[in-house]
Amino acid sequence: MKKFFLFLIVAAFAIPSMAQLNPISWSYTSIKKNEKEYEIKLTATIQDRWHLYSQSQPDDAIAIPTSIKFNPNPLFITDGKIKEDGKLEKFSDKSLGVSANQYTGTVVFTQKIKLKAKVKTNVTGSIEYQTCDDKKCLPPKTVNFSIAVR
Q1: Which CATH number fits domain 23-149: 2.40.340.10, 2.60.40.1250, 3.90.440.10, 2.30.110.10?
Q2: pTM for this structure?
């Protein structure tokens, strides 16, 4: 019984600390280009020693690429592919036979949208991503976003 009680005490402190470990912070903005065109910017700020994976990965990658989904909205359409802006690092470990496209520091994901009329709306969606350092990878995480377009 003492061992079980000790396990509960350790678990009570360990589980919340793992859940709180999130080396990525996200911020979201919209930039008006003209009356009906906007750029939606999703900015990842990455803590030191951690990295975030690019949306596109080499064939031998084992990393989970960042995936961004925009929820359907009858008031706008997306225009083109999501662009990444940051210092892309091409990691390769020949002994394991794996490689990855990854970012450190900051990366901005930009999606152009076109409004169907001059309206105010929100652009919503989700980002699924995985982060790793040189010793461990965290489980994939999904965050939702909502950005006002005015």
Answers
A1: 2.60.40.1250
A2: 0.85
